[in-house]
Amino acid sequence: MKLPVSRPAIRASTLTDVLLVIVTLALLAIYFLPMLMYRPRPRAHRINCVSNLKQVGLGFRMWANDHDDQFPWNVQTTNGGTKVGDMFAPEVSANFLVCSNEMSSPKILACSRDGGRSKARQFGGTVAEGAFTKANLSYFIGREADERHPQTFLSGDRNIQKAKANPAATDPSIFIFNNTPPNNTDAGWKDTIHVRAGNICLGDGSVMQATESLLQKQLTSANLDGAPVMTLHFPTPP
Predict the structure, then answer these.
(1) Average model confidence (pLDDT) for the chain?
(2) Contact at 8 Å (CB) between 90 and 134?
(3) Within a domain: residue 16?
(4) pLDDT tens for each residue of 176-219
(5) What share of the chain is helix, strand, coil (3-state, %, to 5)?
(6) Got the DSSP string for 46-82?
(7) Of 5, 17, 96, 183, whose CB count within 10 A is highest?
(8) Would you state the pLDDT for residue 4?
(9) Longest dimension (CA), the chain
(10) Is residue 184 part of a domain?
(11) Which of the 8 DSSP states describes residue 147?
């Protein structure tokens, strides 16, 4: 004879229980949703910056193809460049401006993580119309850049810094790096844009994401590629 098996009573959820769960989920959503929506996305910004620099590198190289493989800062103004005699353009933005026909939009010249620079609406016109100026530029140029030396620096994020004084340059917008180890350890990144990291566009137009150690290694590579010194020209404060 089988004895009846007793089963625990199953309590059905009441309307109060359901409402309590709904209210709890709603409160959690109210608390966490703004954090999820507005939290910074550094990886996405880095990828966007890499895309910008690839277009910058392509624009400079296209311009160079029409000017005996020379970049604007090595071409006299009489031939369409930015150099006057032995003097370079005082504002680095001039080098990007002469390449406006080779660049898709001035918006690519301002990194979305660079709070100190805004995006221009157009290359020409007035400032009131949103014309491109140094206030819309996040990137430096490398004066020793050369397509024949692909490890040289063509452009990159402006948050590179020097750890030591720079006596060889009287212009504060110029950094001169000695690429020979151990002097290359003089280079680093400020945390003002990509937080102790940045992006570099090389002489062949390729772009690399670089930590501080990779930046220093790349300076050594530039030295081995024929550039013992790297002169970087930065946009001045707007």
Answers:
(1) 85
(2) no
(3) no
(4) 888 887 777 788 898 889 888 999 999 999 999 999 999 999 99
(5) 35, 20, 45
(6) HHHHHHHHHHHHHHHHHHHHTTTT--GGGSBGGGTSS
(7) 96
(8) 54
(9) 113
(10) yes
(11) T
Structure tokens at 43: 């990886």
Domain count, the chain: 1
What range does the domain containing 105 cover?
A: 44-233
The amino acid sitting at 181 is P
Residue ranges of alpha helices (H) inside 98-229 are: 212-224
Q: How many CB atoms lie within 10 A of CB 22?
A: 10
| Per-residue model confidence (pLDDT) at position 238 | 80
Instruction: Give domain status of residue 57, yes or no.
Output: yes
Q: Which long-range contacts (CB under 8 A, 24 or more apart) does 165-174 make?
A: 169/231, 171/90, 172/236, 173/92, 173/233, 173/234, 173/235, 173/236, 174/231, 174/232, 174/233, 174/234
Query: What is the average pLDDT across 33-38?
Result: 50
- Cα dihedral 147/149/150/151 (nearest 10): -140
Residue 83 vs residue 226, higher pLDDT: 83
Residues, the chain = 238
With respect to residue 32, please indicate whether it lies within any of the assigned structural domains: no
Give the Å distances, CA to CA, from 133 to 30, 92, 136, 219. 42, 10, 6, 29
pLDDT band with cut points at 50, 70 and 90 for residue 14: confident
Give which of 200, 204, 208, 209 is closest to 149, Cα–Cα: 204
Name the residue among 163, 171, 148 with its Cα closest to residue 231: 171
